[in-house]
């Protein structure tokens, strides 16, 4: 099982969310730093499309560990809510392609 960590203390606004995501997930240099691009990059985690630093096998999950989720929830709850929705959107694309969901959020 693959795992990546995002530090909720370092996410204070949308630009920092995208910077942290790009670094943690290995998004390409041309990553658009918007919500659609985030979903695009992570919906191909099993395709080996190079849009992230992960290439999952069939049935494998990428666990997204949101460290210090309580800090993010208290400072910018909208970002946390949106992250949950983004994961759902990426998983929906993955299942639409006939595969099992590939992303799971773990708050620590």
TrEMBL record:
Barstar (barnase inhibitor) domain span: 2-100
Domain of life where this protein originates: Bacteria
Pfam family, one: Barstar
InterPro entries in the record: Barstar (IPR000468), Barstar-like_sf (IPR035905)
Family the UniProt entry places it in: Belongs to the barstar family.
Name of protein: Barstar family protein
Lineage: Bacteria, Pseudomonadati, Pseudomonadota, Betaproteobacteria, Burkholderiales
């Amino acid at each position: 099982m693959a795992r990546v960590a995002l530090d909720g203390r370092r996410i204070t606004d949308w630009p920092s969310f995208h910077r942290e995501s790009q670094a943690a997930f290995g998004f390409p240099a041309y990553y658009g730093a918007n919500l659609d691009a985030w979903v695009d990059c992570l919906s191909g985690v099993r395709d080996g499309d190079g849009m992230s630093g992960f290439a999952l096998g069939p049935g494998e999950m990428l666990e997204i560990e949101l460290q210090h989720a309580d800090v993010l929830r208290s400072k910018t709850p909208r970002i946390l809510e949106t992250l949950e929705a983004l994961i759902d959107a990426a998983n929906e694309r993955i299942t639409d392609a006939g595969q099992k969901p590939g992303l799971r959020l773990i708050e620590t």
